[in-house]
Amino acid sequence: MPDASHASSPRQLDVAIVGGGLAGLYAIHRLRKLGLAVRAYEQGSGVGGTWFWNRYPGARCDVESLEYSYSFDDGLQQEWHWPERYGTQPVILDYINHVADRFGLRRDVQLNTRIASAVFDDTANIWTLTTRDGETIRARYCVMAAGNLSTPRVPDFKGIHDFKGRWYHTGLWPQEGVDFTGLRVGVIGTGSSGVQMIPIIARQAGHLTVFQRTANFSLPARNKPMTPEREGPHKANYRERRAAAMETPFAIGGHPRPTRKTLDVPADEREKTYEAKWQEGGSISYLYSYTDLLVNKEANDTASEFVRDKIRSIVKDRRTAELLAPKDHPIGTKRLCLDTDYYETYNRPNVSLVDVRTDPIREITPDGVLLQSGAEHALDAIAFATGFDAMTGALNEIDIRTTGGAVLREHWAGGPLTYLGLMVSGFPNMFVVTGPGSPGVKTQMIASIEQHVDWIADAIDHLGRHRLDRIEATADAEGEWVNHVNEVADSTLYPLANSWYVGANIPGKPRVFMPYVGGFDRYKKHCDRVAADGYPGFVLSRHEAADAASRT
Ligand code: N01
After folding, report:
1. What pLDDT was estimated at residue 544?
2. Residues flanking ligand 1, CB < 6 Å
């Protein structure tokens, strides 16, 4: 029920921020420094976004923690100690809470609050946001920091609500955790979440059945404790390292750029390189073996086949190994998974792999999973690792419109349209952090968050200093940018994969390649140039109503 007490006194802000994850928190910090009244609205009962919700067993970042952390404050990055090469979900959530406390951000975060609608009044030049509880907020600017992988999706399986056991989704994992000891457990989905979770659940469960529709490439993470020898030199040159990361396509430093094309290198030398990278662990290093792995199919085949052979050498049952060896997409064109003992897990006597590509799931029965063939797998619990309505899901769940008649869901009906991934034509003063059309999800995400929030803060500051109060992307600039994003994607192997990058995991979602894959370095330079040149592609103006008000 709407709470009528809110209705009479809308909160007045300079900037309303939707989301209290890594992006929303940094936006509070950065925009507050401009003297603006800001507030973030977060649907969770704590800050942290992705790292608040994704508490499934084994959840861990696949970018090294010395990279995957905020860079905006040197004191913060010097004092925080990461205990391992890759942060676990609890450690990353601790870090985010530490940041919230250290910079006094909590006072500007409103938890347990879901934004239901955001309406821009073209005449008054004001956004009005309404929460699910009926509170209204009025703000000059709106920053959508709602996340790219924040709308969990469980497939619409018939019978799911009659299942007698318990079921879970990785992105909505219970805070108190789940004890699978001795149970017959099914995991549906083998993307990054499934691949991280499966080895841990296998150690607890009586029996684990993995339902795989598409095999994914996974590389060993080779996680290990942080050592002073690793941490000390990194922190001694932190600023230089961060700056160097900005000059790379993935915004991740520490990996020398490749210089040679794959097929220019003799096969035996290539094998040695792939082997060294496999032993080193991590995905960037492997994809950085040669310059052309993501643009030349023949080159990519050599890297893909190396990993398929590794899978065949680890997994003892030949049929299982062949099912696990991906053959439908080039390596790296879907998000590469990082794992600890994923393939080894299939050698356990209590783990079985079921191919639901050839024999799809027909329905969930009260007792388990029923396949089209009639085979039934009896289960006590099901863990859905079936992913998210990525990149557009969170914004499309909010009713975003203008009094002039623009409706975001309609504008994006054929796929998301943005200029630079930062703004949408027809929706003035609404910024999107790391949205579709930006490289965010293809990079070290916190670097992309900082780059976007800094750009947004600079734009708002620029408006204020020029006595302007309205910025809007033009339809032409948006169209040209969307074409550019597509052209860049089409020059790579990415479109060969059915991935969430193209919305393939959501039935009926328009198939559009959403991230910008031209590289963080190129993208950042372009955004910087746009700002330095006075924001071509945007219309900046002083709103007439504000003008009139200032004259009276
Ligand atoms: O989701 P996904 P995710 N029947 O979409 C399957 C980030 N992340 O949560 O490929 C059967 O990748 C689906 O099959 P298919 C990271 O960016 C990061 O794992 O559509 N199966 C697929 O196997 C990642 O890419 C980290 O054929 C069905 C799986 O479910 C992103 O989040 C950790 C099905 C979904 O895989 C999403 O990863 C975790 C159906 N009806 C996540 N529907 C780290 O930092 C879907 N599937 C390590």
Report:
1. 65
2. 60-62, 149, 155, 170, 188-194, 196, 211, 213-214, 335, 338, 356, 361, 385-388, 500, 505
Neighbours of 513 (CB within 10 A): 20
Task: Report the sign of the C-alpha dihedral through residues 364, 366, 372, 373, in that order.
Answer: positive
Contact 474, 535 (CB under 8 A): no
Contacts of 291 (CB under 8 A, 6+ apart): 258, 259, 260, 261, 262
pLDDT tens across 415-460, in order?
999 999 999 999 999 999 999 999 999 999 999 999 999 999 999 9
Cα 197 to the center of its chain, rounded Å? 18
Ligand 1 centre from 189 Cα, in Å? Answer: 6
The residue whose CB lies within 8 Å of the most ligand 1 atoms, and thus the one to mutate among 213, 214, 441, is: 213
496 neighbors 331 (Cβ within 8 angstroms): no
Is residue 362 within 8 Å of residue 164, measured between CB atoms?
Answer: no
H-run or E-run covering 445: helix 445-465
The structure's pTM equals 0.96
CA of 194 to the centre of ligand 1 (A): 7
> From the CA of 129, how far away is ligand 1's center (Å)?
32
Sheet with 166-169: list strands edge to edge: 166-169, 381-384, 184-188, 207-212, 351-355
Return the pLDDT at 545: 57
Contact 153, 506 (CB under 8 A): yes
